[in-house]
Amino acid sequence: MIELFQFAPAFGLPNASPFCMKLETYLRMADIEFEIPSAKLQHLQKAPKGKMPYIIDQGKTVSDTSFIIDYLKSTYGDPLDAWLDTTQRATALAFQRLLEENLYWAVLYSRWVEPQGWEQTRGAFFGGLPAPLKWFVPTIARRGIIKELHGQGMGRHSLAEIHAIGKRDISALADFMADKPYIMGGQPCSLDACAYAFIANLLWAPVESELKDHAQKYPQLLAYCERMRDRYYPA
After folding, report:
1. pLDDT tens column, 177-199
2. How many domains does the chain have?
3. Same domain, 72 and 145
4. Is 81 among the domain residues?
5. Residues 6 or more apart from 228 whose CB is under 8 A from it?
6. pLDDT of 1-33, one tens digit each?
7. What is the pTM of this model?
8. Backbone angles phi, psi at 119, to 5 degrees
9. Integer Cα distance of 68 and 53 in angstroms
10. Strands, E assignment, the chain
11. How confident is the prediction for the chain on average, in pLDDT?
12. Pairing of strands 2-5, 34-35
């Protein structure tokens, strides 16, 4: 059985990491059996690329959600995306990039740099660490994230500019979805695993920000998250 290594649930969500939540959601959507070992610091230390999530399947370790999903499709079939035509596949990939390569960094800034967001993030990610780790690990991790934000470019913008970038992405996704039940139409595809993870982490995580306020202006986003939760994470 596939072993899924990821962070422990937080913020009342399956995972506070949208990438971890994306992969777990994909596995549920594709009806692939998996198990999640108890989260331990050693799992992150053993991560092939130094990041969560990753999987071990039949002795093979695969990391990075995009590569993992490609592996899962080639190994277990592609039950979610077979109905998409080439134009739809291109559109889905573009929205995946919008979420993972742009909006992600704006959300990361609101959680790790903005003071109110950092207070919530520190407790969610590091609250369970024993002393003395809890005294210095959060500060080191935050410095690393700030460095990544600067290197990627998002961290070089002003707060108002970062908010404007994130709001534009959120509006684009909401406008494209309109009144469709799923992002690409009447049935779900693999993009929905990504979209649900990112939107739910905006709407339902207890981190107040302008990005969250903006997402709440679109009722179709809330209805979408509720639809995905009820279908793939039934109580």
Report:
1. 999 999 999 999 999 999 999 99
2. 2
3. no
4. no
5. 25, 188, 192, 196, 200
6. 999 999 889 999 999 999 999 999 999 999 999
7. 0.94
8. -60, -45
9. 9
10. 2-5, 34-35, 54-57, 60-63
11. 95
12. parallel
